[in-house]
């Protein structure tokens, strides 16, 4: 399952999305139209970005392992 480090990293992505949401709320007020995300969309965006980052880390580690295993 996920470690505390992974959970903390996901929470960081969620915080980024919350900050993005605040910026979008301010812009929405200026423009007079709602361009914010729903809570579900915010969570999904954070999740997608976390998964992309996690996959990149796995690919990087796997590549290192492959190079060392076959060298």
How would you briefly describe this protein structure?
By secondary structure, the protein is an all-alpha fold. The chain has 2 helices and no strands.
Explain this structure to me?
The model has no long low-confidence stretch (mean pLDDT 93). Helix 1 packs across helix 2 (39-69). The protein has helices at residues 4-31, 39-69. It has one domain (4-69). 83% of the residues lie in helices and 0% in strands. 1% of the residues are buried. It starts with a helix and ends with a helix. It is elongated, with a radius of gyration of 17 Å. It is mainly α and 71 residues long. The chain is built from 2 helices and no strands.
Task: Provide the fold topology.
Blueprint (H helix, E strand, L loop, with lengths): L3 H28 L7 H31 L2
Helix pairs in contact: 1-2
Quickly list its features.
mainly alpha, elongated
How many strand units? 0
Order of helices and strands: HH
Residue fraction in strands: under 5%
User: How many structurally independent domains?
Assistant: 1
Count of alpha and pi helical runs: 2
| Uncertain ranges | none
The percent of residues in helical segments reads over 70%
Cα-based radius of gyration, to the nearest Å: 17 Å
Please tell me what the overall shape is: elongated
- Biggest β-sheet, characterized? none
Task: Kindly report how far apart the N and C termini lie.
Answer: 31 Å
- What does the average pLDDT come to? 93
């Amino acid at each position: 399952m996920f470690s505390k480090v992974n959970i903390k990293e996901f929470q960081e992505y969620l915080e980024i999305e919350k900050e993005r949401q605040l910026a979008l709320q301010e812009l929405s007020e200026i423009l007079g139209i709602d361009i914010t995300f729903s809570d579900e969309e915010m969570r999904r965006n954070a999740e997608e970005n976390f998964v992309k980052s996690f996959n990149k880390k796995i690919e990087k580690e796997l590549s290192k392992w492959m190079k060392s295993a076959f060298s």
